[in-house]
Write a structure and sequence with these properties.
The protein has about 280 residues and is α/β, with parallel strands linked by helices. The chain has 2 domains: about 80 residues, 3-Layer(aba) Sandwich (Rossmann fold); about 120 residues, 3-Layer(aba) Sandwich (Rossmann fold), CATH 3.40.50. Helices cover about 40% and strands about 15% of the residues. Strands 1-11-8-7-5-6 form a 6-stranded parallel β-sheet. Strands 3-2-4 form a 3-stranded parallel β-sheet, sandwiched between helices. The protein is globular.
């Protein structure tokens, strides 16, 4: 029988730990503030932003919200970021992605101070991750590590295959697994014999962005499968990159969608916000 890795429960543990740390900081007269900027009214982005506000309220972080119209110029957005960079009362700055097409996403990410980049996307924080220095780690990969550790799944010495090479998940995920002493292979759309590569994995992390692409044919018996994907099927039902009912019977442990990796992203964002007190020192 396989273990279902419960992201809701583990994310609640982390948020409760953050809430305790925030309360301790408040007793020392230290407040924590996250500024969230959304440009346009993309429905999915609005849901994410609202969830981030709720999480801030739950753990006691002040939330500043900037809901800007679609036609906001790049210069106007950069001016807000500059103002927040200079404001000592603001610990973290988050620009909800994607931004409208007339705004350069890379320029916006680079404009945020690395000391306030709680998303962990700035090149300075990515570089720090690569060479093992302190900095913010992007939230979804950091959340996967917590899921594994808090589910008592050993990483050290294991064969890990990460499917996907994005800057937000695939690349930082592979570095974090290396940091935990796994042997890591990064697979992607051009990988030859993808099924055979995946079947080597003790831990298979799937962030390929294709609904229910990964079937039992890709999975070694007894593997741990982490599904980072999330898609909305017809009838509004959510699914991941893994065909859950087909794959689960072959696993020792697996994350569901929803309720697996998803809740961890916001929990780790909250942790980054709390960690900002020490990182900024």
């Amino acid at each position: 029988m396989y273990q279902i890795i419960d992201g809701k429960e583990i994310s609640t543990q982390i948020k409760n730990e953050c809430r305790d740390r925030v309360a301790a900081y408040k007793e020392q007269g230290v407040d924590i503030c996250l500024a969230v900027i959304q440009v346009g009214n993309d429905p999915a982005s609005s849901v994410y932003v609202n969830n981030k506000k709720k999480a801030c309220e739950y753990i006691g972080i002040q939330s500043l919200s900037y809901e800007l119209p679609e036609e906001t110029t790049e210069e106007e957005l950069l001016a807000i970021i500059d103002k927040l960079n200079a404001d000592d009362a603001v610990n973290g700055i988050l620009v909800q992605l994607p931004v409208p097409k007339h705004i350069d996403e890379d320029k916006i990410i680079r404009a945020i101070s690395p000391l306030k980049d709680v998303d962990g996307f700035h090149t300075q924080n990515v570089g720090a991750l690569c060479i093992g220095q302190k900095g913010y780690v992007s939230c979804t990969p950091a959340g996967v590590i917590e899921l594994l550790k808090r589910s008592n799944i050993s990483i050290e010495g294991k064969e890990c295959v990460v499917i996907g090479r994005s800057n937000i998940v695939g690349k930082p995920m592979s570095i974090l697994m290396l940091r935990e002493n796994a042997t890591v292979t990064i697979a992607h759309s051009r990988t030859k014999d993808l099924k055979e590569v995946c079947k080597r994995a003790d831990i298979l992390i799937v962030a390929i962005g294709k609904p229910e692409m990964i079937t039992a044919e890709y999975v070694k018996e007894g593997a741990v499968v982490i599904d980072v994907g999330i898609h909305r099927k017809e009838g509004k039902k959510l699914c991941g990159d893994v065909l859950f009912d087909d794959v689960a019977p072959h696993c020792s442990a697996i994350t569901p969608v929803p309720g697996g990796v998803g809740p961890m992203t916001i929990a780790m964002l909250m942790k980054n916000c709390v960690d900002s007190v020490e990182i900024r020192k």
